[in-house]
Amino acid sequence: MPTFDNTDLLLPPEPGLRALARELYALAAEQPIISPHGHVDPALLAEDRPFPDPAQLLIVPDHYLTRMLLSQGVPPSDLGVPARDGSTVETDGRVIWRRFAAHWHLFRGTPSRLWLEQTFRTVFGVHTPLGPATADTLYDELAARLAEPDFRPRALFERFGIEVLATTESPLDDLGQHAKLAADGWGGPGGRVVTTFRPDDVVDMEFEGWSTNVDRLGELAGEDTGTYAGYLAALRARRAAFIAAGATSSDHGHPTARTLDLAPQEAARLFDRGRRGEADPADAEAFRAHMLVEFARMSLDDGLVMQLHPGAVRNHNRWLYARHGRDVGGDVPQATEYVHGLAPLLERYGNDPRLRVVLYTLDEDTFTRELAPLAGGYAALLLGAPWWFLDSPEVLRRFRETVTETAGFYNTTGFVDDTRAFCSIPVRHDVARRVDAGFLARLVAEHRLPLDEAAETIVDLAYRLPKRVFNFGGINQ
Question: Which residues have CB under 8 Å from 168's CB, separation 6+?
Fold first, then answer.
């Protein structure tokens, strides 16, 4: 991993604790990065082309950044975000960079500022502070770095110390980029870059173009998706194709954590209503809920780890969605219920240790009340790291404080960066390792954990746990 110039970043301020945390952090810092869930475009590494200008790399695709400026009246089009409605957007990288720099003060105290500043310093070796007066200087320094061979994607992958990076693709993806990675010795089963099976666009009847997507699913799989049985067969076939491309997990981004264990006939009736265009929102929710149980059943057959990312109200900002599409900052979290929602799945499979279901949340209130007790009581459940709106230093600390006493460390999965921003990967993992070092140092100082056990634990959290949980040593290792 890159060397961080501020040794004590995020470590406890009290000298005794800080000394312990430094010792523990040093052990974590030397571990390779396991990035088991994220949204980096596999073409980035398959094609290994030079990055574009600094704005196109660091600002345009980062909805953490563009949504903040939108909240202050700066439209995404002024920051180069592509428009789906054909409207004009800014294309000059320097203009975008200057506009962003003029609003840099908006990010004071946010993790976005921390990540971006650490990316400048530790990835690019650039220490010019960002601001309106320095925008051009910083832009030129970054652009000069991007022109160097050592800053091509694969060279950075090596320098970041990434052992495994998982991307995320739809069943409708032909996995051509992953085939290229495999041909180059980078992908395939056991590879350095692997895919993840994300079937939301063929499961969620409220997804735009769902029925057309189901037709396409059948074409790719060679199955008749006009019937529910054919639809299930097509999903199994695509899962097999993803496993052949290196996938070790699936991912499910449902609005809620609700599950249902329906009889096949009832599931088929819901599917048929959806295919006829007659499904209402209740039907769509029931079908999504049933499919989570169906996917758990498939996971027992093929070994894929099952990730559940519920709780996002997608495209809440309808104007933003209409103009720029999905995944550009228009989503917001909602309260999410797990105890009753997951009960049908857990009743069926929760005590089967062959199944791994990794739960995430956008509802921090559920850490202590629901998630930790569930993970601490079912063999199939594990807790994923704080995600999306919660992947900040303060919430990472609160996560350890609120779940460890009930679920322990070993019902969690280590850090998951869930990022599209490739250059931020080592920064985000470093932040999580520093937070864990501080938490473990406090346990040692309070005589609740011996130092040797804390040392073993931080290496587990940084490296061994995510590698084991996500089967990066072979299915069900």
Answer: 37, 38, 39, 195, 196, 198, 251
27 pLDDT band, cuts 50/70/90, is very high
DSSP H helices in 303-387: 318-324, 343-349, 366, 372-375
Provide the domain count of the chain.
2
Q: Report pLDDT for 473.
A: 82
* Longest alpha-carbon distance in the chain: 67
- Same-domain status, 157 and 126: no
Given a cut of 90, is residue 128 above it in pLDDT?
A: yes
Residue 7 lies in a domain: no
pLDDT at position 463, please?
98
Q: Are residues 160 and 142 in the same domain?
A: no
Kindly list the strands in the beta sheet with 162-166, ordered across the sheet, starting from the edge strand earlier in the chain: 33-35, 162-166, 193-194
Q: How far apart are CA 237 and CA 232, in angstroms?
A: 9
Confidence at residue 475, expressed as pLDDT on a 0 to 100 scale: 44
- Asked if 274 and 363 sit in the same domain, the reply is yes
> Which H or E element spans position 425?
helix 425-445
Does a structural domain hold residue 76? yes
- For residues 55-65, b (16+ Cβ closer than 10 Å) or e, as one string? bbbbbbbbbbb
Strands 312-313 and 305-308: unpaired
Counting other chains too, the contacts that 113-121 makes at CB distance below 8 Å and 24 or more residues apart are 114/393, 114/427, 114/431, 115/421, 115/424, 115/427, 115/428, 115/431, 116/58, 116/65, 116/424, 118/4, 118/9, 118/427, 118/430, 118/431, 119/58, 119/423, 119/424, 119/427, 121/4, 121/5
For residues 336 and 465, state if they share a domain: yes
Is the per-residue pLDDT at 476 higher than 50?
no
**Phi, psi dihedrals of residue 194, rounded to the nearest 5°:** -130, 165
CATH number at residue 367: 3.20.20.140
Average pLDDT over residues 238-259: 98
The secondary structure of residue 376, as a DSSP letter, is T
CA distance 243 to 165: 15
Are residue 387 and residue 257 in the same domain, yes or no?
A: yes
Q: Which of 42-46, 72-76, 92-96, 323-327 has the lowest mean pLDDT?
A: 323-327
- The C-alpha atoms of residue 62 and residue 336 are separated, in whole angstroms, by 25
Structure tokens at 331: 């989503």
What is residue 86's predicted lDDT score, i.e. its pLDDT?
A: 85
Residue 5 confidence (pLDDT): 56
Q: Is the pLDDT of residue 470 over 50?
A: yes
**Domain end position, chosen among 118, 149, 180:** 149
Residue 205: which domain range? 153-470
pTM above 0.85, yes or no: yes
